[in-house]
Amino acid sequence: MQFDDDADLDTSEVQDVRGSRIPGGRATIGGGLAGLIALVIGLLFGVGPDQLGLSSGDQPAATASSLAQVQQTCKKGRDANAQEDCRVVAVVNSVQAFWTGEFARRAGTYTRSPTVFFGGRVGTACGTASSAVGPFYCPGDRKVYLDLGFFDGLRTEFGASGGPFAQAYVVAHEYGHHVQDLMGTPARSQDGVTGANSNAVRVELQADCYAGVWARHATTTAASSTGKPLLTSLTDADIRDGLDAAAAVGDDRIQARYQGRVTPETWTHGSAQQRQQWFYQGFSSGDMAQCNTFR
C-alpha cells in the first residue's frame, strides 16, 4: 500500500488526544477476567463502551490535545508512507473522500466523521472507554475512536499477519459503521439477539463489505488538493493482509482461542469465513448495493 508522496494530508479529520487527561471518574475496565473479556470483545471491533456496559455517562467528551502531534507531523503522503499515525490519517482521508463521492452519486449527503486517536482512556458520547475496548464507532457523537496500540495486539494476540492494509481494513470497517449510521442501519442490531444469523452479525458483516467497497475504489478516489488519488498502489498482497485480519477477528477464531470451543449461538460479529467473504464481496463488486447482508 503506497500513498502519493506529494499529496497533502487533511489532519482536520483526525483529533489527537493522546497524552490528554480525562478528568473525574475512574477507569472503566479493570484487570483480571473482566478486563480480558472486554479486550476480547473489543478486539472484534465496532463495539462501543456503552454496548459493553463499561461506560460512565457523566464523563466529559475528549478534547483536542495540546500536543497536536498529528497536525505537526502528518503533512504529506510521504509521511503516511513512513509513520503509522500518518498512515491512518491518509486512510481516513481516502475513505471519507470515497463515501462523500458515493453518497453524492446516489443523491445523498455524506457527513464526515473524525477519528480520535487516544491512549489509555477516552471520554465519548457513548461513555468512557479504556484502550482494552479496541477500535469502535460511537453513534452518539459520530466519531471513530482508535488506540494505535490495537494494531500490535492484532498481530501478537490474534495472529494476524499485519501490514499497512490490515490497519486500513480496521479503519474502513469502522467507517462502514458510520455509513450505516447515516443510513439508519444500526437500529436493526439493537434487538439483543446473538447468533450466526442475528442482525448483530449482519451489521458487522455489512461494515466489512463496505470496507471492501472502499478498497476497490481506493486507488481511483481523489482525496488530496492535487485532485489525484491519495492511495496510488494496492497490491494483491495488501488485500490478502486485509482478508487475514478479517479472519483473525472472526467469532469462531476468538472463541476457539479463548474458551477452547466454538458457540455459534453467541456470535455477534461473524465467523472468520463470513468476515472474509463479505469483505471480498465488497472488494470484488465495488458496489455497496451488493452489501445487503440482511437479505
Detailed description of the structure:
With 295 residues, this protein is of the alpha/beta class. The chain contains 10 helices and 8 strands. It has helices at residues 32-42, 69-73, 77-82, 84-105, 150-156, 164-183, 199-217, 236-248, 251-258, 272-285, and strands at 2-3, 14-16, 115-117, 121-124, 127-130, 136-138, 143-146, 231-233. Strands 2-3-7-6 form a 4-stranded mixed sheet. A hairpin with a 2-residue loop joins strand 4 and strand 5 (127-130). The chain is globular. The model is unreliable at 23-48 and 50-67 (pLDDT under 50).
Mean pLDDT: 81
Number of strands: 8
Strand content: 5-15%
Radius of gyration: 18 Å
Structural class category: alpha/beta
Shape: globular
Helix content: 40-55%
Biggest sheet, strands in spatial order?
A: 2-3-7-6
Query: Sheet with the most strands?
Result: 4 strands, mixed
Residue windows where pLDDT falls under 50 for at least 5 positions: 23-48, 50-67
End-to-end gap: 33 Å
Output the helix-strand order.
Answer: EEHHHHEEEEEHHHEHHH
The tally of helices reads 10
